[in-house]
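To whoever picks this up:

The nightly regression suite flagged Adenylate kinase isoenzyme 6 homolog as changed. Nothing in the input moved, so I suspect the structure step. Input below, exactly as stored in the fixture:
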Amino acid sequence: MAQNSRKKPNILVTGTPGTGKTTTSSLLSDATELRHINVGELVKQKNLHDGWDDELDCHIINEDLVCDELEDIMEEGGNIVDYHGCDFFPERWFDQVVVLQTDNSVLYDRLSNRGYMGSKLTNNIECEIFQVLLEEARASYPEDIVVALQSNCVDDISRNVSTLTDWVKNWHPAT
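Regenerated output under the current build:
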């Protein structure tokens, strides 16, 4: 069972860049007092990468270093992990896996406003069209803990935070 002896749940919030992971995770952290871990920021702060990818304009994450860094606090529980990938995290870490999804026209505008261009923009839009992250989550975690939530507007984010806050309040560790 995923929960082990944790007193608080661990939640993974994943999805294509621009779907609202960090906003949702921050608001959920405020509402539940769970610790928000932004993996992208952690990678930068602790140098958990193998250099820079000029084509994709991002760090090349070292998944082993990230998992080593997070192991102890994940075992404690009470974490919201925010990252666009999910297949390298151990299955035992999470009690809920949330895949945020955004309509392509909304996502295109969000990513363009962030300065995404060329192959980086195209790759992320295609990733969303083909539901790559939802399939990755379903292949990596038990089906009953994976949930897809729409994240197109502020109302969606508020509803998602409310739904997830209720889930946290009703969560019970395995006995």
